[in-house]
Specification:
single chain; about 110 residues; alpha+beta; Thiol Ester Dehydrase, Chain A; five-stranded antiparallel sheet; about 20% helix; elongated
């Protein structure tokens, strides 16, 4: 799944450059990770964020931004997810997120 964040003037954080606000990029990547977990793992409830670490690699220009999540590992209670966001080329990411999420255990139905 590739998530898309269309550009809009309201997401500019630094009007001098102009650059997309870091909080917008962080929230976009976090939502991408949660959506990928819901789609892939078929959770009954939305996973909860335990912690995230974000690396801002370059300024987000006033363009459409894309993100893709890769689930590294899903255990009984915790999932580890890596997300990369890019604009022009996927090989040149503008930000990356590593996160741990609390997933609900799968219930065994009789």
């Amino acid at each position: 799944m590739t998530a898309i964040l269309p550009f809009g003037r309201h997401i500019i954080g630094n009007p001098v450059l102009p650059a997309i606000h870091g909080g917008v990029l962080g929230a976009f990547m976090e939502m991408t990770a949660l959506a990928q977990l819901l789609l892939t793992e078929g959770q009954e409830r939305q996973p909860r964020v335990i912690d995230v670490s974000i690396e801002y690699l370059r300024s987000g220009r006033p363009l459409t931004t894309f993100a893709r999540a890769e689930i590294k590992k899903v255990g009984r209670r915790i999932a580890n997810v890596h997300v990369e966001a890019w604009q022009d080329r996927r090989a040149a990411p503008i930000a990356a997120l590593r996160g741990h999420f609390l997933v609900s255990p799968t219930e065994v139905k009789p």
